[in-house]
């Protein structure tokens, strides 16, 4: 992946974090939802694109995997590009790993 693609992805992830915070409103802040450092390098959010705090997770219990595709069209919903299946597999693997970590805490 080139530098421009990485920058585009990081900008998109920050925008989605802001959108999540705008949707849930106060008292949540950037501390509760922000871009994962090093593209999935956060120890608790390994693989996810956004860090969601335990406090926010109570009302927003989701893993977030962001994909910013300039060329996505509505017709892709009916005739999915090959990469879409790879995106779904990545999100599924991340969710499974996250659930294992959460279950080990209880």
Give a verbal description of the structure.
The protein has 106 residues and is mainly α. The chain is built from three helices and two strands; from the N terminus they run αββαα. The protein has helices at 3-24, 54-57, 82-105; strands at residues 33-35, 50-52. The N and C termini lie far apart (38 Å).
Task: Please sum up the structure shown.
The protein is mostly helical and 106 residues long. Helices cover 47% and strands 6% of the residues.
Name the helicity range: 40-55%
Tally of separate helices: 3
The Rg value, from CA coordinates, equals 15 Å
Report the major sheet: 2 strands, antiparallel
Query: Would you tell me the structural class of the helices and strands?
Result: mainly alpha
| Alpha carbon gap, first and last residue | 38 Å
- Overall spatial form: globular
Mean pLDDT, as a whole number?
Answer: 80
Q: What's the structural blueprint in terms of helices and strands?
A:
Elements: H1 3-24, E1 33-35, E2 50-52, H2 54-57, H3 82-105
Antiparallel strand pairs: 1-2
């Amino acid at each position: 992946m080139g530098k421009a693609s990485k920058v585009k992805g990081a900008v998109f992830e920050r925008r989605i974090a802001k959108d999540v915070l705008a949707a849930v409103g106060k008292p949540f802040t950037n501390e509760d939802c922000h871009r994962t450092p090093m593209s999935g390098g956060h120890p608790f959010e390994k693989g996810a694109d956004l860090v969601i705090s335990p406090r926010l997770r109570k009302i927003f219990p989701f893993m977030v995997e962001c994909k910013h595709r300039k060329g996505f069209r509505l017709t892709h919903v009916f005739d999915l590009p090959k990469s879409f299946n790879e995106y779904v597999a990545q999100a599924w693997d991340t969710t499974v790993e996250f659930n294992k970590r959460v279950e080990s805490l209880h």
